[in-house]
Amino acid sequence: MSSHREAPEISKDPVADSTDVYAFVSPDACDTVTLIANYIPLQGAAGGPNFYEFGDDVLYEIHVDNDGDGRADVTFQFRFTTHVHNPETFLYNTGPITSLTSASWNRRQTYTLTKVDAHGRATVLGKGLTCPPCNIGPLSTPNYASLAAAAVHKLAGGRKVFAGQRAEGFYVDLGSIFDLGNLRPLQNLHLLGNIFSGPAPGVNTTKELNVHSLALQVPIRELTRGGWNNGDVNDPRATIGVWTSASRRQARVIERGQGKDAESGPFVQVSRLGNPLVNEVVIPMGHKDQWNALPPADDKKFAHYVAHPELAKLLPVLYPGQFPHLDALNKSGKPRADLLAILLTGIPAGIVPGFQNHTGSTEADMLRLNIAVPPAAKPNILGLVAGDAAGFPNGRRVFDDVVTVELRAVAGLTYALVDKSFTPDAAVNAVTDGLGPDSVENPYLDHFPYLGLPYDGYHHPAS
């Protein structure tokens, strides 16, 4: 969760495992959109001697669909190259790393950023771009903030890019949720909750962990159909769909006695992510790996899992007497039109006053962002359901509480939007894992790349 170790096969390949996708109109540069894709989940900060890094053998991509067919019209590709300056030392660094060109930094990565259009035409936007080192500790990386800032590269056309380690900004109580669907704030109401004396605050499983981020800031006109940007929320061209993917070469041969692989063939997708929690919670175990291998355009075959989510059926069982209206809805067999809209088609006009992020009839899991909605002056972490149209599920900001939003939606909160005769259960507004942005120790930034500085291994040794 959001998409950490979400499928059996990708859980064995963390370098290619996407964890979160964010897309939002940049609050400090409102004529741009920021796109962030995180990889390599659940990194302990103390990672030596082999610190975390992107895979040279992985093709990382951030995709944008601007015509609603679930296929990319704009794709940004990241390819990495690792450089080892002294192969005769076991050390990542042989002294303090004081700059991105520091001679004491032994193992570093650079990358090429390429833009590919809907016709496959590729344009290199940047080459030899430098990643920052991992945040090791006060002796090795004494001024990490300056190293990270130097790794924010300004490119032609008003673009910015960053690729490197950041603090995990997604907060979730994994330990409780996957313990038979327990939510600590409601644990005494659980079917098996007689062992608890009462509710308890949530525990952030991802606290003090890091991820590796691909972050882009690009002009809005670069992402929309025909370069549209006239500020009309109701215009179909206002909404884009965003997802990330990771691909590996089709063939891999382990070279005997060499300690390395040889790869060949076309790239094959092994991971993807659009909306948070979809493959994690909605797609069943036997189909998760297939889901990761397919494009959003093929998601119609998974739509029935969204229309009749397993978690919605479990909540009335796990919390007896708390969700009678949801239980009746489940037993009626009616498809969850609210969830289908939120996750697979976008929300049509007329459902939420003054808002839409509908992309058409194609059912595709994409993070949909209406770029005509300006950043909120006073953001609410519950986003659209709390009246903040600049937040999830209109795109996703780094601090949005997507766990609470999606849990409440599954529990029936949003069904009343599509069926006025339905009344959400009273317990719905209490549904949460009990966490918020204050659960993240390293604070978010108010500027690109928005996720906080990564935790260092000296002060955060547990892993």
Tally of alpha and pi helices: 9
Question: Percentage of helical residues?
Answer: 10-25%
Q: Oligomeric status of the shown chains?
A: single chain
Mean pLDDT: 95
Main sheet, how many strands, which sense, barrel?
Answer: 7 strands, antiparallel
Radius of gyration: 22 Å
Structural class: alpha+beta
**What form results from the Cα inertia axes?**
globular
Can you give me a brief rundown of this structure?
The chain is α+β, with helices and mostly antiparallel strands.
List keywords for this structure.
463 residues; alpha+beta; 5-stranded antiparallel β-sheet; 9 helices; 12 strands; 14% helix
Walk me through the structure.
It comes from Streptacidiphilus monticola. This is DUF4331 domain-containing protein. The relative contact order is 0.18. The chain has nine helices and twelve strands. Strands 3, 4, 5, 6, 10, 11 and 12 form a seven-stranded antiparallel β-sheet that branches. A five-stranded antiparallel β-sheet has the order 1-2-9-8-7, with no helix packed on it. With 463 residues, the protein is an alpha+beta fold. The protein has helices spanning 144-150, 174-177, 278-282, 288-293, 303-307, 310-318, 324-332, 337-345, 402-410, and strands at residues 18-25, 32-44, 59-65, 74-84, 107-117, 122-130, 153-155, 159-167, 209-219, 239-255, 260-273, 367-370. It is globular, with a radius of gyration of 22 Å. It starts with 17 loop residues before the first strand and ends in a 53-residue tail after the last helix. It has one domain (10-439).
